[in-house]
Records
---
Amino acid sequence: MAERAIALVDCNSFYASCERVFRPDLRRVPIVVLSNNDGCVIARSADAKPHVKMGEPYHQIRDTLRRHGILAFSSNYALYGDMSQRVMTVIEGMVPALEVYSIDEAFADLTGISGAEQLARQIRAQVLKCTGIPTGIGIAPTKTLAKLANAAAKKWQANTGGVVHLDTPDKRDWLLRHMPLDEVWGVGRRMKEHLGIAGIHTAWDLAQADAWTLRKRHSVVIEKTARELRGVPCLDLESEPQPKQEICSSRAFGERLHDIEPIREAVATYAARAAEKLRAQGSLCKKVRISIRTGMFNPNEAKFAKGVVCELPYPTDDTRLIIKAASEGLDAIYRTGYAYAKAEILLMDLRQRGEYTGDLFSLEQPETAGRVMGVLDEINSRWGRGTLRPARVPIEPGWGMRRELLSPRYTTDWNGLWKVQCR
C-alpha cells in the first residue's frame, strides 16, 4: 500500500499578493493590509515584515510606513475572496481530492501519485501562471507534518524552490530538529509556554514526548499533534466542510452611531448576510443573538454593551424572519445617550434539515418561504450580492466600514476592471 502523501498548498502573503497581481509596479514595494475601518495591520508582504508587526495600529505606524516606503491598503474582501476561488479551482483540477482549509490554504491528497514533488512544482507554476499568486507547498504523511514542511518551503525558498517533500525519515527528523515549537500547527503562545516548562522547545522535542502524558497534562489535540509529528496520521482529509455550529456576522461601524434607525439598518444587513451563510451550508436556526456596544478604549466615551437572545417560532433560514427577530431584539437592548461602535448577529441552535422532529403541534417553516429564499439566492448569485435584498438593507449605508485606502475590485466589479493605456 502506498505511503500517505498530503500536500499543503499555501499562498504567500495572500492579501498582499492579491494587491500586487493587478499592480506590477508594486512587485518590489513592501505592502501591508489593514483590518476593518483601517484599524490595524492584518497582513504583510515578506519585505514589510522586518519593519511592521502584526496587529500594530495604523495610526501609530504611519511615519514608520512612510520612512520605509511601505504602502498600506484597506481590506478588499471581494477581491481576496474571488482570487481565492480562482486559486482553489486551479489546484482542484490537478489533484484527486482537495480540502479547502482557509481562504489561502488547501490540503491535497497525493497518495499513490508517483512524482508527487514534481506534481507539486507543476501546481505551484500553474497557480502562478493562471492567477499571479505565489505559493509554497509542503508534502508529508500527515497534515501536521505537511504544515511544517510548508513553513520550511517558505523559510528556505531559495534552496527549496518553494516545495519541501518529507519522503524519508531522515528529512523529517532533520526538519523537526531545526523547527522551533511555535512553527508547529496548533501550538499557540500560551501552549508554547506550558510546554516549555516541561522542557519542550522544538518540534523534535514535542514529537519525542510521551503522547499519553501530553493528553493528561494538556489536551487530546496536543497528543494528536505529537503523533502526527512522528508520522502517525490522526487527522483525515475533509473533502466537504463540516457545517458550522454557530454563524456570526459582525463589523464595526465606519463612524459612531447614536440613533437607533441607522443601527437597525446595520443589524438588518448583518442578519441578511448571516442568513445567506446559513442557507449555503443547508442549515436552519432556532435562536438569534443580537448585541451592540460602544467603543471600549476611548476614556472620554461612556461605555455600554448589551445583548439578547431571541427565540424564533420555528427552525428557519428565512432572512425576513431573522431580520424581524433581530430588529425586535435591538429595540429591547438599545439605550439612548451612547455612541455605538459595533453590532453583532449570532445565529445559534443550528440544525441540518431533517435532524429535528417536532411534535404534532410544532410550527414548521412554510414551503413557500424556502422557495422565496431560493429565488433570492439565485438572483444574487447570478447578478451579484445585493441585487435583491430586504427593504431595510441599504445600498450605500452612511455607517459603512471606513476604507480610505481601498484598491479597485478588479475581478468582481465592472467599474474596477483593469485599465491598460496604450502609447
Note: The first strand starts at residue 6 and ends at 11.
---
Amino acid sequence: MSKIVVTGSLHYDIMLQAHHRPEKGETVMGTDCAYKFGGKGGNQALSAARAGAEVSFIGAVGDDDQGKFLLSQLNHAGVDTQRVAVLDSVPSGMSVAILDAENDYGAVVVSNANNAIDPAQFTVVSAWQNSVMLLLQNEVPESVNVCAAAQAKLRGVTVCLNAAPAREISAEMRAAVDLLVVNAVEARDLSGLKVADLASACLAAESLSRQFPAVVVTAGEYGVAWCEQGQSCQSLAAEKVVLVSTHGAGDCFMGVLAAALLRQHSLAEAVTLANQAAAEHVSRQPI
C-alpha cells in the first residue's frame, strides 16, 4: 500500500484559555488549561492517518514522559513510529498556546529534540518502502528538510512543503519541492504580494507557481486558491461556519490534502476535500 512519509516537529502542547493574550509586562488570569499532542509534523501525520492514509513518521523526541505521550498518540492513530528516535540528551519539543476570547491564538514553541533529528535516518532504504509522498514543514532546521527532500527525489517521491512558519527557502529546497502550501502571511513573505481576499490569493499563487510546479494558498476566512505551473489559478470560497477555534486548522488541511492526493485525486479535488475538513475543524473545540 502506498504511504506518506512525514518528517517534522513533535510538540507537547500546553493550551491555555484567557480573555486576551498578554501585552508586554502584563499578567493575564487564565480560565482553562489542557495538555495536548502537537507540532506541525505530528498534527499533519495524525490528520493524514485519520483521513485514511498510511503514514510513517521520521523525527525525534526526548526520553521523557512528554516523549512517551507523543509516541503513544502517533501509535494510537496508526502512524508508524519506527523512525522516531528517542534521545536521552535533550527533552521533547513543546509549545504553549493561548486561546483568547475571540477564538484566535498565539503560541511559543521550544524545539528541543526537533532540532536534533539525525539526517542519516533519511538514507535508510527501508524508510522509503512504498512511499509516494514526503510531507515537510518549517518547524525543523532546513538542513533536515533538504536532506529528506533530496532522498525523496532520488526515489521518485513527491515532495510537499508546508512552508510554515515562514522563512527563506534555499535554492536547493526550492528545486526539490513539487507542491508548496502556504497561508496568507507565508504567501506574502515568499511572493511579496499582500493576500487580503481570494483575488489576491490567486495572484500570489500564480506568482509562486513560476517557482514551484504547484502552489496552494490558504486565505483563512476568504477561502483557498491554487495554481499549477502554466495553468490558470483556481479558487474556492471558505465554507460558512461558526468559528470556535482556528488552532490546528492548517495542519488538518494539510493532512487531508495529502491523503486525498495519495488516493489519486486531482489537486482541485484534494483542495476541496481539505477545505471542507478545515471548515469542520474550526467549528469545534480542539481535541
Note: The first helix runs from residue 40 to 50.
---
Amino acid sequence: MAAEGAPLRIAMISYYLPSGSKIGVGYQAHELANALVANGHHVDMFSACLPVDGALYGHREIKLSGSLQTFRFARALRRVDFVSYDVIHAHGDDYWLWRRRVPTHVRTMHGTGFEEALRIPGFKEKLRMLLLGLTEVLASLVADATVAVSPQTRRWMPWVRRVIPNGVDTGRFRPDPARRAGAPTVLFVGTWGNRKRGSSLAQVFQRDVLPALPDARLEMVCRDAPDDPGPGITVLGELTDAELVEAYQRAWVFCLPSEYEGFGIPYAEAMACGVPVVATPNVGARYVTDEGRAGVLSDLDSLGGALLRMLTEDDERARLAEVSRERSQTFALSSVVAAYEAVYRRER
C-alpha cells in the first residue's frame, strides 16, 4: 500500500480506447491515464482495445470473442488479480467486482443507459440499454466512490454525490486566431447516423445556411459519412490529435446536435479553443454550456437559424467565444486529475 502522498498504483478500466473505438469514454480514459502518469503515478489500462500510440501508461488487453462483448468484458475482469494496485478506477463494466480487491475502488458514470434507452430506436437496443442501466446501478453500489460527469447524470442515481466533469487538455486545445478559416466554417465531431445526428446537421446546413452564405463550409470529423455528402460539406474522416485541434481552431462555430450526451467532450474542446457552440439541449450540452449561458441551445427545427446568426453576427460570436473560453476552464484536465487524486486518497 502506498504511503500518504506517495505515487499510487492505479488499475484503470475502460472497454473502449481511441485505438479501437470512437466512443468518447475511451478518449477520456486515455487522457486521464496519461495525465496521472505525468503526475508521477503508475497506471495500467485494462481494455478490450489494442494499445494507443503515444500512451504513457501500461496496457493489459482483455481478449474477448463472441457476442455481447461488453458483458463478457465485465465477467473477464472478475478473473483479474488486482491485488498489487492501490486503486481501481473503472469507466464502466466493474459491476462484478463486488469483493474488495484494492484499498480504493472508484467508478465514473459517463452517462446512463436508462437515458439512452429513452431515445435509441429498436426493441433489442432499448433492452440492451436498460440492462446497462441496471449494471450501472449495481456498479454504483459496488464501488467505494462513484463519480458522475455532470449533475444531470445523477437523475437516475440520486445517491451519487460527487460530480467531476470530463477533462480537456487546455494546453493543447486553445485558440489560435492565425488558423481561423477565411470562409464561414462550421465544425462537427461525431457520427453521421444514430444519436449524434450528423446527417440531420448536413441537411440543416444545406437547407438553411448555404442559400444565405454560399461560401460557408461544414467540416465533419466523421468516419461513417457518405463519400459525397453534398455541396459545402467536407468529410475529414478520422484525424490525429494535432489535426483535430487545428480543425477546432479553423472553425467559426462548432455544432453537435446530439439527441443525448452524458457530457459531450467535443463541446468542451471547442470552447477551450474559443469556438462558440451551437447544440441541441441534451443533458451534456446543457451542463457544458452552463444552460446556454456559454453557448447556444436550439431545437433541431430552429438549428439553421441559430447557425446563421452565429456565422453572421460578428460581435455576438466574439462575445460568446470569450465566455466559452472562460467556461472551459471548469473542465481543465489538470483540475480534473487533482479532483480524482483527492478521491483516491480520501477513500483509502
Note: The chain has eleven helices and 13 strands.
---
Amino acid sequence: MFSKLDSLEQSYTELEQELSKPEVYSDQERYTELAKKLASLSEVVEAYREHKSLTTELENNKELLSDSDPDIKEMAKAEIESIREQLPELEERLHVLLLPKDPLDEKNIILEIRAGTGGDEAALFAADLFRMYSRFAERKNWTLEILSESETDSGGFKEVIAGIKGDRVYSWLKYESGTHRVQRVPETESQGRIHTSAATVAVLPEAEEVDVEIDPGDLRVDVFRASGAGGQHVNTTDSAVRITHLPTGIAVSCQDEKSQHKNRAKAMKVLRARLLQIMEEERKNAEDEARRSQVGSGDRSGRIRTYNFPQGRVSDHRINLTLYKLDAFMQGELEEMIEALAANAQAESLKQD
C-alpha cells in the first residue's frame, strides 16, 4: 500500500510543478485537465502526508522515552498512546481511498419508478418516492427533468422516468435500485387496516452516444397518438414514439412532448441508459462474480427497503439499518442512509481486496 501511496504523492508533486508553469496556465484546456487530476489525488495525498507526519512524531516520542526528565517521559508516553489510537483509523481510510473508483460515479442518471403490487396504493407510493428523490435532488442542487410519466386517476404513477443531472449523481443514488415496500393505512381504508404495497426503483447511469453504439438497423420505431391518464387524447397528431431495440427486446415509449422529434430524443436517452446498464452488469460479472454484493448490484427483484408509516420508521434490509425519522426521509433527507450504504459497500470491497 505504501509504495502505491509514494507513487501517488510523486504524481501529485509533479502535477503541482506542471500547473505552476506559465505556458500551462495560458493553455486553459490543458490547465483544467491537470487541475482535475490534481484534485482527484488531493484527498489521498493529504491523508498519506498526515500518516507520515504522525509516524515521524511517533518515532520522535519513542526517543524521548530515554530522557532523564520524568515529566518529558510521561508526556512522550501520552503522545505515543494518542498517535497509536489515530494510526489504525487513518490507515483504514487510506485503504478506502485506494479502492478502485467506480467509473460511472460521475455520471448523470435516468431514474425509473414503477408501481408494483398494491393497485392504487402502489401508484401513490410510486409518486411519494418520486417526490422524495425530487426533494433530495433539490437539496443537492441537481436538475431534474421528467422524460416519461403514466399517471393514475388517483394522482399516483404507474410509471415515471426522469433524468437527473448534477455533481456525482450516480455515486449518490446507485444504491437505490430495488423493490421499495410501504406499510400504511390508505386514505380509502375505513377499517384502519395497514396495507402493504410496493414500487420498484431503477437508477441507470446516463449513457452518451460514445458509451453505447447503437446500430440504427437494430431499432424499430413506432409512432402513435399520445393519451392521458384517463385515456383522453392529449393531442391529435401521432407525436408519441415507441423505440424497440430488436437484439435485446427493450422497448421505450415517450409521449410527453408535442414534438415527435423531442419524444424520440428522450426515448433514445432512456434506451441508451438501459443498454449501458446491461453492458455494465455483464462487465462486472465477467470481471469478478465474487465482488458483486447485494448492495449496489442493481438487482430489482430483492426487497431493499421498507417504509412503515404507523411506526414512523424506514428500514434498509441490506445493512439492517432502521431510522425513526420517516417524515424527514420522505422530504428528501436521505444522506444518513445513503452514506451508511456507501460505507457498507466500501467495507465489502475491502474484504475482497
Note: The chain is about 45% helix and 20% strand.
